[in-house]
Amino acid sequence: MNFSLYIAKRYLLSKSSNNAINIMTLIASAGVIIASAALFIVLSVFAGLKNYSLQFSSFVDPDLKIFPVEGKSFMFSDDDKNTLTNIQGVASFSEVIEERIIIKSENKNLLATLKGVDSNFLNVTYIDSMVTKGYWFTPNSNEVVSGWGISHNLSFGILDFRKALSLYVPKPGKGQISSIKGAYNAVYVNNVGLFDINEELNDEYVFSDIGLAKQLLNYKDNQISALELKLNPEADENEVRDAVNSTFKNRFVIKNREQLNEALFKMLNTENLAIYLIFTLVIIIALFNVIGAIIMMILDKKKSLSTLFSLGAETKSIKSIFFLQGSLMTIVSGIIGVILGLLIVLAQQSFELIMLTPELPYPVVLKFSNIIIVLATIFALGIIASRIASQRITKKLIQS
Fold first, then answer.
1. For the chain, how big is the Rg over CA atoms in Å?
2. In degrees to the nearest 10, what's the CA dihedral of 137, 138, 139, 145?
3. In whole angstroms, what separates CA 100 from the centre of its chain?
4. Residue 206 — φ and ψ, nearest 5°?
5. What single-letter DSSP state applies at residue 130?
6. Model confidence over 288-309: pLDDT tens digits?
7. Residue 248, CB half-sphere, CA atoms under 13 Å: how many?
8. Most exposed: 54, 285, 341, 371, by fewest CB within 10 Å?
9. How far apart are alpha carbons 142 and 115 in whole angstroms?
10. CB-side exposure of 195: number of CA atoms within 13 Å?
11. Residue 170 neighbours by CB under 8 Å, 6+ apart
């Protein structure tokens, strides 16, 4: 066995004659255990909150969404549909039209986004499962489904025939507008359902049949804004992307769910990084105790170090003893901390100890990558702290 490692293990496991040093060592180890457990728990909680936030986008966003390279709309013929259907990995697709509109209820107006979808849309997303009042609209009708926020702001409900809703969109063209009536296309609709996903979507979207959207926007039969794709569970996203790009060369831009919610993903990733850096700072502060404990151990063992030096041990070997002792202390404490954090996370998953709301437990997700991140952080910082402390040893200190 390596001489320095053998002595380091002896020093780590044995008690010092000075009780203050024993207490200092326990405090240092406890600090690393608590800091590493806290970092692991916080990363697991944040992963749970991230999944909880993103699960709502999966109800309304497809696996892949196809946009035109130029313009707001494009022509998609029956031959194009057959070609897309035959691409391996595509389970289903839906044609959609999206456009900003003005929705009017009695004397109230509101800007919103109309999303006209075909009958296949419910095979691509699960938006109908988020309709909390009423029902999904009937195909080829003037029925719409609105978000709760729009319903609240315009004071309308469902199947309220006394309050006719009007959808307006500016007519394309140039020149002076002679009258408001001549400046807009308009359709009357009946709201038959309310969906509840999140505040942003609830305040933004109105869903209708794609035929109604084409009528409002004066679109041609094969003219659409985008295509939304659902992939087979075993399909490779990159392979499907390559197949679509090679089949429809230079026609489309393809985005996945993360790219469709780019701002949200950036915000969540930034918050995750900020939390990691904050708790890493806590670990660094805890490791100051490790440095102090090692330095106190060095001073306490001066006579033993002098004896080792007299027996032929080099200064480098003696430094290695305390470097390895500090490294072992942080590694063992870090592993204990991660195990403690792991038990707490598992307990929350199994027994729902802490509730976010009376019905919803605080979401936590156990990820192997978080274990690696915490251990790598503890090991790296522990090695640096041990190196700093061991440099306190000099030939002059040993012989004094």
1. 32
2. -10
3. 28
4. -130, 125
5. G
6. 999 999 999 898 888 888 888 8
7. 25
8. 285
9. 13
10. 25
11. 183, 184, 185
Degrees, nearest 5: CA angle 159-122-50: 100
Is the Cβ–Cβ distance between 190 and 144 less than 8 Å? yes
For residues 258 and 57, give the distance between their C-alpha atoms in angstroms, rounded to a whole number: 9
Place of tokens 């996370």: 345
Greater pLDDT, 180 or 13: 13
Q: What residue has token string 């609240």?
A: 152
Place of tokens 């608590």: 34
pLDDT in tens, 366-384: 999 999 999 999 999 999 9
The pLDDT tens digits of the residues spanning 180-234 come to: 556 889 999 999 999 998 898 999 999 999 999 999 999 999 999 999 999 999 9
Residues 243 and 191: their CA atoms lie apart, in Å, by 39
State the pairing for strand pair 131-134/165-170: unpaired
**Count of other CB atoms within 10 angstroms of residue 224:** 24
pLDDT of residue 384: 96
Query: How far is it, in rounded angstroms, from Cα 321 to Cα 325?
Result: 6
Distance of CA 380 to the CA centre of its chain: 26
- Token pair in block for residue 252: 């489309």
Q: Would you say the C-alpha torsion 64, 67, 73, 74 has a positive or negative sign?
A: negative
Q: Which residue has the tokens 């024993």?
A: 22
DSSP H or E stretch at residue 393: none
Domain residue extents for the chain: 3-56+264-399, 63-256
Residue 193 confidence (pLDDT): 96
Q: Identify which of 175, 170, 59, 173 has the alpha carbon closest to the alpha carbon of residue 111.
A: 170
Q: Name which of 125, 59, 70, 130 is nearest 96 in CA terms.
A: 125
